Amino acid sequence: MSECLKQDLMELMQVPGLSGHEDRVRRSIRSRLERIGVQRKTDRLGNLVAHFPGQGPSVLLFTHMDQLGFVVRKIEANGLLRLERLGGVPERALAAQEVLVCVGEGRDIPGVIANKNHHATSSDEKYTVTPYRDLYVDVGMTSAAEVTTAGIRVGAPVVYAPRAVELGNDRIAGTSVDDRAGCAVLLELARRLKDRTTGPPVHLAFTVQEEFNLRGALPLAQTIRPDIAIQIDLMLAADTPDMDGHGDIALGSGPGMSLYSFHGRGTLNGVIPHPAMVDLFERTAKAENIPLQRSAQVGVLTDLSYVQHVGEGVASIDVGFPMRYSHSAREVCDLGDLAQLTQLLVAALARIGPDFSFDRDDYT
User: Fold this and answer.
1) Are residues 130 and 243 in the same domain?
2) Which of 34, 76, 188, 210 is catalytic?
3) For 161-198, how does the pLDDT look when each residue is reduced to its tens digit (9 = 90+)?
4) What is the CATH number for 193?
5) 188 is catalytic
């Protein structure tokens, strides 16, 4: 396992970057690319892209750098804050969570989502989830004037208090594993791609606003018009008692690829991967002796679902790393899975040559 991979993940998890407010994360990743010696540019929305020249079909390899969270909806007269959710924030995981109100680097304000005094709750309340609109954040201030003087306004971004913790067996817990783990993998790929002499043209991208209805990657893809799109994100680990029956993905058992994703509610979208891409990753994993897990899920959605429709259509696939406890304040991943995912991607890219076939009849 690369120590750089671990260090990038641990440090990026502690940089707040609510969807639509990813600038600090982008600047941190940009500085890392600079140290690696890789040219990069930022588009109007804030997507960060590094281009690696090559021969053959062009590849967009991307992951999102934003995280879900909240915005301030209302400032109460007594200084308490009301929140609006941004992204798929689970209400049952909110009470008593520490948060960070982002008003500017070095000036951010910690707070806590209140949990009603246990001694004052009725028997019914003890077994119910409080709707997020009824929750409030206590930042320790006593008036609306004090709050606004500190720089907090309606619309201010709020995230789970950033945290990164090393667990046993090279596992990491904390905020925004989704998808700072993907960002760490792409940074490791940038180190590997920098000095290569063969392979396809690769556009390595760190995208914005994935948690806000998948908005950032589509304009980028419309500009690049890739032949192939590979999206890096979490794979739902199903190896805990509460996830029994949700699949076979297990933490620490290697990277995974999605054979089917469909949101099933709200945004009725998803991805069925192109057979050329499934074949590519299966053959690569076998040749490299890397275990490759398979996922098929309803309730999961990535921005690849829009990217796949660009131009004449893009040969697309979601690959990623197993992760537990998605969208909570303490997600968990395995560093070994990230290292193997990096190895798999490097080897897969090397197999994409000028004669790479997109003819479905060659695979089905």
Assistant:
1) no
2) 210
3) 999 999 999 999 999 999 999 999 999 999 999 989 89
4) 3.40.630.10
5) no
